[in-house]
């Protein structure tokens, strides 16, 4: 039926919308691995460093008193050159001049500046993901070069999880392998399912404490006090769910050839254009100071 009074439906053209001045974003912004490891500089697209090691200890080392020193090829300890390629990462964005000027809900400045902020956060996540998961390619004038990420860099201390959830025994064996190689691991990077599995281990572990008056159940494990040192258990969103990595973090760095920067391009019609970009690589001073378990259960 037709109303004889003016209601909100009939007056919808003149009624103001109910739009709060807030934008909600649930997307994650954390970059745990990149934030925790060291920072360094690269001076060329091929970043290189040297490693060396001591010979194995020898309890049978004995010399007759007064004997002349003898020399052999086995006495020589040669250094090894290791390298990684820098990778260029970029996020582009553009907005119209009109969109910059119109009044917007939840945006205090221009649309261009807001998009710049979003793309900077996205680029940081991409950098973190590459530092963990990328595999290297030298590239050429028509092919983008890529770095060797942390998981690809670890080749000495590795284990196959056999498609099952991580078990405490395998974790401890990997810690021992790293320790035997000379490493002093301090951090374990894991995805959500393996973190839950570790929190479910029944052997004594160090858990966060809380006042008993809080009447709260603490089920998470943030530190694992092993025979080979205390390991901090870290949730890293970019870790594959089927893998964990144990690191001596002091041996790992992100090396920047070009730190993150912003560039605004020339005007194109009524559009502002720009991009954020960075060029970096992963410096792993001793990959055998860490280890990884792959092919773990994911659910």
Describe the protein's topology.
Elements: H1 32-36, E1 38-41, E2 46-51, E3 80-85, E4 87-96, H2 97-101, H3 111-133, H4 150-153, E5 158-160, H5 168-180, E6 187-190, H6 192-199, E7 206-207, E8 221-226, E9 229-235, E10 244-247, E11 252-264, E12 271-284, E13 291-294
Parallel strand pairs: 1-11, 5-13, 6-9
Antiparallel strand pairs: 2-3, 4-12, 6-10, 7-8, 8-9, 10-13, 11-12
Q: What this model shows, in words?
A:
This protein is an alpha+beta fold. The chain has a single domain (32-50, 79-294), classed as phage-related protein like fold (Alpha-Beta Complex), CATH 3.90.1690. Helix content is 19%, strand content 28%. The strands form three sheets. The chain has a seven-stranded mixed sheet with strand order 5-13-10-6-9-8-7. Strands 1-11-12-4 form a four-stranded mixed sheet. It is flat.
Question: Can you give keywords for this protein?
Answer:
phage-related protein like fold; 19% helix; 299 residues; 6 helices; 13 strands; 4-stranded mixed β-sheet; alpha+beta; 7-stranded mixed β-sheet
> Termini, distance in Å?
57 Å
Average pLDDT figure: 90
What's the assembly state of these chains?
single chain
Order of helices and strands: HEEEEHHHEHEHEEEEEEE
Short account of what is shown:
By secondary structure, this protein is α+β, with helices and mostly antiparallel strands. It has six helices and 13 strands. Strand 11 and strand 12 form a beta hairpin.
